[in-house]
Amino acid sequence: MSGHEHPSLKYMRKEVLPTAFCPGCFNGIVMNALFQAFEELEILDLKKYVFVSGIGCSSWIPSPYIKADSLHTLHGRAIPVATGVKLANPDLEVIVIGGDGDLASIGGNHLLHAARRNMDLVVIMINNLVYGMTRGQAAPTTPKGMITPTTPYGNPEEPMDVARLLASTNANYVAKWCISQYMFLKNSFKKVLGEIKRGFRFIEVYAPCTTFVIRRENKTPGQKLKELMNTCIGLEKLEKMPREERTKYIPTGVFKENDKPGFIDNYRQYVSISKR
Amino acid sequence: MSKVFTVEVNGLLCKGCGICSEICPRGALVMDGVNSETGYPNPKIVGECVGCKLCMWFCPDQAIVVIKKG
Questions:
Q1: Which member of A22, A27, A225 has the closest CB to residue B23?
Q2: Are residues B58 and A24, on separate chains, in Cβ contact within 8 Å?
Q3: What CATH number belongs to A22-274?
Q4: Which residues span the domain enclosing B21?
Q5: What Cα–Cα distance (Å) separates residue A136 from each residue in A30, A106, A130?
Q6: Cβ separation B58–A2 shorter than 8 A
Q7: What is the pLDDT of residues A247-264, one digit of tens each?
């Protein structure tokens, strides 16, 4: 070793490395994108940031690995805890990192209603398509026909499109990116951390589970990453295609973007009216 | 062969997933041998590195770093 280290490592707790993720797990790439966004915004000290996570593989990202204050809460309850943190001290920027099983299935209602209230949070949902931590059972985001331990003949249910669901609510920013679209993902993180500073900002990352999705397809993580570069395409490009062909692709892009006042601004206005 | 860039691998962090060798546009990285401390294969540079840093940003274990010589 001659002193060169990965640029992400300055935001990480080096004493707990190597990470507990499986070899090739895409969670680490999401971390790289997040830290590169922080680096490009010239935020070197994460004292003003609080990371909240629930239970799941991707909830491990903030809890031991990010060198910042973090709360590892109950399964699915990351958003209520984050709401409490934000309301207790609105100066802090609260970032929720969780998986699809944590945020969209057990915590689905919390996610929906935090978006409806336009709560001032950044929510990063890493969609790995299954319940990865409990050995890959079918989740609400599992595609139809996928073989999992609980659906050995192929999943009979249609998946839920979380990004489109939240785009229908009052959220300020909703985007979905594939893990292969690293630069778009990083620019999206930069946008929600540096530009849009209020309201509910949601970024979904499509990152199939290495162990329970990719290995079942007899692929290596690198081969899947290359394949995703072709299957994930932008919303505009998708709309020009014939309807039958659209199901083969994964739509990515910015679903919604505006800068409306968030819950805290609205609540302060409400309090000022009540005191009149 | 003028080598401006090269890579350095932290063998203790690398888990040998092979994303770097798969993603390298020049095919300059190959998975080689077994690290005696971790038991995972580590990447080794065999071709010319052009410094695109794809391997660095796509490394899930923060083990590989692209450095500029001189």
A1: A225
A2: no
A3: 3.40.50.970
A4: 5-68
A5: 20, 16, 5
A6: no
A7: 888 999 999 999 899 999
Query: How many distinct structural domains can be found in chain B?
Result: 1
Which two three-digit tokens encode residue A235?
């919303």
- Name the residue among B10, B12, B47 with its Cα closest to residue B26: B47
Q: What is the CATH number of the domain that holds B46?
A: 3.30.70.20
Check residue A257 and give its pLDDT: 92
How far is Cα A196 from Cα A31, in angstroms, rounded to an integer? 20
CB atoms within 10 A of CB A270: 10
Q: How does the average pLDDT of chain A come out, rounded? A: 91
Instruction: Name the DSSP class of A105.
Output: I
Examine residue A90 and say whether the peptide bond preceding it is cis (omega within 30 degrees of 0). Answer: no
Among candidates A1, A23, A225 on the partner chain, residue whose Cβ is nearest the Cβ of B15: A23
Q: Are B60 and A182 an interchain contact pair (Cβ–Cβ within 8 Å)?
A: no
Burial class, A124, CB count within 10 angstroms (exposed 0-12 / middle 13-18 / buried 19+): buried
Specify the pTM: 0.93
Domain coordinates in residue numbering, chain A: 22-274
